[in-house]
Amino acid sequence: MRGVHAWFSFTEGTGAKMTPRDMERALARHAREHEALARLSEIALREHQLRTLIDETVATIADTLDLELCGVLRLRDDDEAIEVVCSVGQPDPPSVVPVGKGSQAGYALHTREPVVTDDLPSETRFDATVLTDLGMVSGVAVIIEGYERPYGVLSAHTTRQRRFSTDDVNFLQAAANVLSATVERGRKEQATRHAALHDPLTGLPNRTLALDRLDLALARRRRGKATVALMLIDIDRFTMTNESLGHTAGDEVLAALANRLRETVRASDTAARISADEFAVIYESGGDVRDIVELAQRIAGGFGRPVAVGGGERSFTASIGIAVAEGSDANAASMLRAADAAMYRAKQRGPGSYELFDAEVRAQVLSRMHTETALRHAISEDQLCLHYQPIVEVPTGRPVAVEALVRWEHPDHGLIPPLDFIPVAEETGMIAELGRWVLEQACHQGAAWQRQLALPLRIFVNVSGLQVVNPAFADEVAEIAKRSGLLKESLGLEVTESILIEEKSAALDVLSRLHDRGLRLVLDDFGTGYSSLGYLQSFPLDGVKIDRSFIDGLTDDDNDGAIVRAIIDMCRALKLATVAEGVESEAQLVQLQALGCEFVQGHLLCHPMSADDVGAFLARHLLSGDDQRLLMNGQTRSRGRLRLRRRVDAIEA
Ligand code: C2E
Ligand code: CA
Ligand code: CA
Predict the structure, then answer these.
(1) Is the CB–ligand 1 distance for residue 419 below 6 Å?
(2) Number of domains, the chain
(3) Would you say residue 358 has pLDDT above 90?
(4) Are 93 and 238 in the same domain?
(5) Residue 132 — pLDDT band, cuts 50, 70, 90?
(6) Residue range 467-485: mean pLDDT, rounded
(7) Does any ligand 1 atom lie closer than 6 A to the CB of residue 499?
(8) Closest atom, ligand 1, to C-alpha of 425
(9) Closest CA to 282 of 238, 241, 235, 221
(10) What is the pLDDT of residue 6?
């Protein structure tokens, strides 16, 4: 702190002898200055906000010394500039002034001495432009000391030619000292507060602060809609590392992992160290559980990268337990318990695992996310394949088409049915790529069978509504079919009615273009939706697949029988082909035949099988000498072979 010893003296700056009148005036001013300082000191004692004290100080000084400009300027932490914190008397002071000889404040900080000037326009020690531009003629700048380095400058100026006496300077310095005491105290308080709430090793918030932040986040959540989650991150086998490498190395690891954690979470999240080998993240955002799980994965990934320690490198894993706030009474304690329980389970599952507390959410989200990640690799790593199921013509008992059904041969989970991953592919947009792959494979296989069997075998491919609404789809499909060498008009697509209803105009447009390019269009799962056949008339459809549920109930439910009859009758009237899917019994087949259904498909005739098996099945039923009757309709072998010959002739011609 700077000395103020000469503050109360009865000489003016010039040292000239004073008249009694001068003396009286000087006494009065000293009394005012004294009073002002006492007031500022008093404010400094009770006021902990430095800013409030600064505001008071500049106002008091300008008033006491009757000045046009008074301000407090702070030396920026990078020492590159001096910022004006507060200023009175001038409407538009600059917000930043130069350091060093670029300004009076800079010069004061440079010399570390009060700088007094009577005549700014003729000043040569520093550049006074900033002040002369404001119309200032004379003034003083004194240093406000801070911790280890100056805090800044208290500066006082006037537009008049004025001689600032030693007393004036001392008064200003005394005021600056009151400020610097407060700066110092604030810094100490801050340091104490920081130390009480932070972990000294990593600098992260400690358990106390983490729980406090969690409480605040939960309070905000009760007022809004944010998702709040607590994630506990426990470094696997850290005790072992600590024992084997020593505690210094253990500390290095903790500091390195703390940095990874800090880099991974967003600024709005709190990353904390809550015990020796346990970190926590408090997540608060509008995102959902998926985002939280993704964050956990990123954290796990960050911990997995090798850490330089004790001259070598080590990788770590962490077990992560996640609790997501639910209900209105979620509190820090209950969240901590839930996250702890989840972490315990994660530990049980093995190193590097994470667990969500809520069992249901956990199961759903995790399985979805696993499927999604794995599915991304499925195509490139050749894990997808197509199975085919023949479609048989009822009067002849002859397989005339096959439906392609996608399968996923997962390296760990075995064969995954399409209903478990098609919806995920649709949600994530992967369906476009997957759908294209299915089409290419199916067309390719279809063309191969057509060559081998010399038959115009049709191939049907299931397409998702999301593919159908893409305007480029028609051209893409036609192009794929053409490239594969498939006979013209042998490719059919199976679409579901929901897309026709929800996206009528887009679907109509694409389906018409597909139809124009010679593709067969079949409406799948018919009867499960709400549309009438009349409505469907507006679409360029070739046939309808009667949903399996009606075929199921066909032999023991009169109602289903009536529905199937109605569908078949209407299709006949509308010139639409009818296919019954899921035919499992001979009784069902007999009834369908009696109702006039044209095509059947189901386990009774053939299960979906690999391309090789279906190829053998087709060859056996279409080409070989011991052609069997697939259906119980009394077809004779010779008539069947005659038809076959005709078809082969047709293709060859
Ligand atoms: P879907 O188009 O209705 O396919 C018929 C489903 O019935 C197939 O199940 C088939 O294996 C099964 N099935 C065939 N005959 C019988 C039978 O006699 N009894 C019984 N109980 N079931 C029979 P899968 O292969 O599990 O396919 C399920 C659904 O997944 C398909 O229903 C289709 O909607 C979708 N799907 C399959 N492959 C693809 C594809 O490549 N792309 C798209 N977008 N969806 C596909
Ligand atoms: Ca289908
Ligand atoms: Ca179906």
Answers:
(1) yes
(2) 3
(3) no
(4) no
(5) very high
(6) 93
(7) no
(8) 44
(9) 221
(10) 41
Neighbour tally for 240: CB within 10 Å: 10
- Residues 290-318 have a mean pLDDT of 89
Q: Are 548 and 580 in contact (CB under 8 A)?
A: no
pLDDT of residue 150: 92
CATH number reported for the structural domain that contains residue 141 in this entry: 3.30.450.40
Q: Who has greater pLDDT, 631 or 86?
A: 86
CA of 389 to the centre of ligand 1 (A): 9
Distance in Å, CA 580 to ligand 2 centroid = 11
Best mutation site among 379, 384, 405, 415 for ligand 1 pocket (most ligand atoms within 8 Å of CB):
405
Query: In 429-555, where does DSSP find H-type helix?
Result: 431-453, 465-468, 473-484, 497-502, 504-516, 533-536, 548-552
Say which CATH number the domain at 430 has.
3.20.20.450
| Prediction pTM value | 0.54
CATH number of the domain to which 346 belongs: 3.30.70.270
pLDDT at 637: 37
* 250 is a domain residue: yes
CA of 403 to the centre of ligand 1 (A): 9
Instruction: Identify whether residues 95 and 128 lie together within a single domain.
Output: yes
Q: Which ligand is nearest to the CA of 418?
A: 1
Asked, for residue 582, whether it belongs to a domain, the answer is no
DSSP state of 241: H
User: Are 151 and 217 members of one domain?
Assistant: no
pLDDT at 71: 95
- Residue 210 is inside which H or E element, if any? helix 207-223
Domain-terminating residue out of 146, 162, 194: 194
Is the CA virtual torsion 262, 265, 269, 271 positive or negative? negative
Ligand 1 closest atom vs CA 467: 44
Residues 229, 160 share a domain: no
Q: Is residue 4 part of a domain?
A: no
Residue nearest ligand 1's atom 41 by CA: 406
pLDDT digits (tens, 9 = 90+) for 162-194: 999 898 999 999 999 999 988 888 888 888 888
378 within ligand 1 shell (Cβ under 6 A): no
Domain ranges, residue 521: 379-529+606-652
| Final residue in a domain of this structure, among 293, 323, 357 | 357
**Is the domain of 250 the same as that of 325?**
yes
User: What pLDDT sits at residue 624?
Assistant: 55
Nearest Cα residue to 59 out of 82, 67, 50: 67
In degrees rounded to 5, what are phi and psi of residue 637?
-60, -40
Ligand sitting nearest the alpha carbon of 526? 3
Instruction: Tell me whether residue 558 is in a domain.
Output: no
Residue 244 has pLDDT above 80, yes or no: no
184 and 212 in a single domain? The answer is no
**189 and 218 housed in the same domain:** no
Type of residue numbered 484: S
